Amino acid sequence: MVLLRAAALALAAASVVSAQSTMQTCSPSSKCPADSPCCSSYGNCGTGAYCLGGCDPKSSFNLQSCMPAPTCKSGDFAMDSMSDISPNTAYLGDASKANWVSSGSPAVYQNQAMLLTMAPNTVGTLLSSTHYMWYGSVSADVTTSQGQGVVTAFILMSDVKDEIDFEWVGVDLEHAQSNYYFQGITNYQNGQNLSVSNTAQNKHNYGINWTPDQVEWTIDGNVMRTLKKSDTYNDTSKNYHYPQSPARVQFSLWPAGLPQNGKGTIEWAGGLVNWDSPYMENGYYYAIIDNVKIDCYDPPSGANVKGSGAYEYTSVAGTQDTVEITNDNTILASFQANGNNQQYNPNAKPSGTSSSSATGSSASAKPTSNNDNTVPGMVGAGSYSNSAQESSGGSVNTDGSTSSGSSGSSSGSSGSSGSSGSSGSSGSGGFSQGTTSSSGQNDGSRVVAGSLVALVAFFAAAMMI
């Protein structure tokens, strides 16, 4: 919704002046420079992770600045272990090493599901697939969070901001909000509410079936909404405003109801977040994700197929006919590298030297601790923690990553208020936020607070600046 994005812009402008002094902004009309060529979904220029998921080819130095994106991978993902998740401060594009990349504090629950957590002074949790999908079906069992100002999301988001959404506002537990966007263009007619029984007390299976001709939103196997591409033709632009570019699967929990946001944003979210809510007696709000299934479809008819490993754009138009599939490299050598200089690694061991006399290649897996823009959200967000993912899924001192961001593009369709009225107990396995937990991997108890600057960066990404 426009108000939500405007609030993110206002919050960013008001709160991160000092951080912005070290960050160059970018847009299609003001592209990144050659030395920081990649435009993140935050709208800032950098290298390293800026050039991976969420890198905007329309606003980067050139089309080659953003790294090729790993192609779709079908599979069933139980989401019952952190072993398949890489923090965004360690991921350099090797999708064979992890199927998901995280920002915030995901945590395993009883070895059977993944918690997305949101503690006070944080901006929640975002999980993104490392492989992109260019048409296919994806489904997941989701138990949403609850409470005013709290939003749970399950979306597909492309680097040019094509988007297909499920979102749940924590004060309306009887509806899932469905929405879609073409290249981030807001249209108030795109959203639609879908009826469902209590989303916080009951686990439901939500699905998106995306083909070149239509999108279906399903709940518990039932088709609840169908969007046909033929119905999205725009007479002004003379093209179809239909999601059509490779997208990542994303799950998120984020705070829409913050006092810094505009009145319309807060009203849409059902009010300000209550950080003393009984729904977070365990120290955080939570949503539960498990049983994720991805089924990749064949490329669309007429696709430019030159390989099988990576998606790339041939034009800043960012439409289906400008996507090609290649075998090009998707992995950066360091956080200082970029798509135009993929093997650059200032910490690489010089040829012929021993490990005792050189930093070693392992150093390439660490972002810099100074103000170099290598991981979106890092600048001004505190020092980099090398133990980013502890056994409980603890966070680093940044949030960082795209999306609608965590799907922040949100639908303007809901506007529904109402009261959650449910207890703090989840219907998906008895997890209660009021339950005293012991230490250990599955309790998700060590949730690290993020900084205000990281919060602003997250919202800038989420609202698709």
UniProtKB/TrEMBL annotation:
Residue ranges annotated for the GH16 domain, each copy included: 62-277
Enzyme class: hydrolase
Record-linked CDD domains: GH16_fungal_CRH1_transglycosylase
Range of residues in the leader sequence: 1-19
GO cellular component, one term: side of membrane
Comp. bias intervals (Low complexity): 348-369, 391-423, 433-443
Gene3D superfamilies: 2.60.120.200
Region of interest: Disordered: 339-443
Annotated catalytic residues: E163, E167
GO biological process: carbohydrate metabolic process; fungal-type cell wall organization
A Pfam family reported for this protein in Swiss-Prot or TrEMBL: Glyco_hydro_16
Keywords from the UniProt entry: Cell wall biogenesis/degradation, Glycoprotein, Glycosidase, Glycosyltransferase, GPI-anchor, Hydrolase, Lipoprotein, Membrane, Signal, Transferase
Any one GO MF annotation of this record: glycosyltransferase activity
Localization in the cell: Membrane
Family in the record: Belongs to the glycosyl hydrolase 16 family. CRH1 subfamily.
Record function comment: Dual chitinase/transglycosylase that plays a role in cell wall architecture. Chitinase and transglycosylase activities are coupled. Required for the polysaccharide cross-linking at the septa and the cell wall. More specifically, transfers chitin to 1,6-beta-glucan in the cell wall.
UniProt name for this protein: Crh-like protein
Organism: Elsinoe australis
